[in-house]
Amino acid sequence: MTDFFECVNVILVRQDGAPVRTPERSVELTQVTEWEEGSVRTLQDSLAAEEPLEIRIGGHPLTVTMRTPGHDLELAAGFLLTEGIIQSAEQIAGLRAMAPENGAKSNVVEVELKNAPFDAAELQRNFLAASSCGICGKASINAIRVRGLRQPDPSFRVDPEVLCKLPETLRSEKAVFSRTGGLHAAALFDASGRLIALREDIGRHNAVDKIAGWALLQKKLPLSRHVMLVSGRGGFEIAQKALAVGIPVLASVSAPSSLAVKLARELGLTLVGFLRGRRFVVYSSEFRCLPAGSRL
């Protein structure tokens, strides 16, 4: 079999007929051999693209992360925000994807900062962040805790019936996942359950950073009146990034980690896990999504 890869820009259509465009280079096509009940056939398959992205500040390499191409500027901006390097969009003087001279793929984002102290020797991370873990290589819990995290808005409320509808909305809008089955997603909703923004990536922490970067660049921070839903589990870094942009309610379709629960309880984040069908588990600050006195 002769193997090949072809990057494509896919347009899918939702059940209501509205087009859903996947980001450029987010899907690759390849030739595979399928075995099914004794029959063998050759067919074309869709893969979730995975490529390295280098983020530079003032020409200095900061980090390299494995990501799914698409919304790279949002990813870079969101990363700087959720990692505590910047606090506002006004500190970004320039943000651009570097175009290689040889016509190769653009996998570098250059950032220029202002009024943001930057120590290249201190902040540079000489490691490759694995797509399943955004904090691999960091030395300790103290090194990964972003300074200045605050308690989210205590007045925000979301109805449990609204929460139960969010996973289905997420599934119906995951354009690249529906094609490849290989991506994580982060989605932003308002209190009524209306989808505000959705981003997909091979790494769940990157998907959250893309949402954070979108909100930062659109000047919509803090996200104090929103719910964030992530596919997969809710780890410490996901909770940390949600807190960094002011999210009061963070939900996941799978389990949170013990460290995520500790952070949520410490800072008053409503952390919801196992959000599936008509069931979910609240690990902290249940007052935002459960009626008072509802506990048996």
Strand and helix layout:
Layout: E1 5-8, E2 11-13, E3 19-21, E4 27-36, E5 39-48, E6 51-57, E7 60-67, H1 72-82, E8 92-97, E9 108-113, H2 120-123, E10 128-129, H3 141-144, H4 160-173, H5 175-180, E11 184-190, E12 195-201, H6 204-217, E13 226-230, H7 236-244, E14 249-252, H8 258-267, E15 270-276, E16 279-284
Parallel strand pairs: 6-9, 7-10, 13-14, 14-15
Antiparallel strand pairs: 1-4, 2-3, 4-5, 6-7, 8-9, 11-12, 11-13, 15-16
Helix pairs in contact: 1-6, 6-7, 7-8
Instruction: Please state the second-level CATH architecture of the largest domain.
Output: 3-Layer(aba) Sandwich
Overall 3D geometry? flat
Work out the strand percent: 25-35%
Runs in which pLDDT lies below 50 for 5 or more consecutive residues are 1-23, 125-132
Number of helices: 8
Could you explain the architecture of this structure?
Helices cover 24% and strands 32% of the residues. The protein is α/β, with parallel strands linked by helices and 296 residues long. It has 3 domains: 5-48, no CATH class; 51-144, Ubiquitin-like (UB roll) (Roll); 160-288, 3-Layer(aba) Sandwich (Cytidine Deaminase, domain 2). The longest helix is centred in the middle third of the chain and has 14 residues, at 160-173. The chain is flat. The chain has helices at 72-82, 120-123, 141-144, 160-173, 175-180, 204-217, 236-244, 258-267; strands at residues 5-8, 11-13, 19-21, 27-36, 39-48, 51-57, 60-67, 92-97, 108-113, 128-129, 184-190, 195-201, 226-230, 249-252, 270-276, 279-284. It contains 8 helices and 16 strands. It starts with a strand and ends in a 12-residue tail after the last strand. A 6-stranded mixed β-sheet has the order 12-11-13-14-15-16, sandwiched between helices. The chain has a 5-stranded mixed β-sheet with strand order 8-9-6-7-10, with helices on one face.
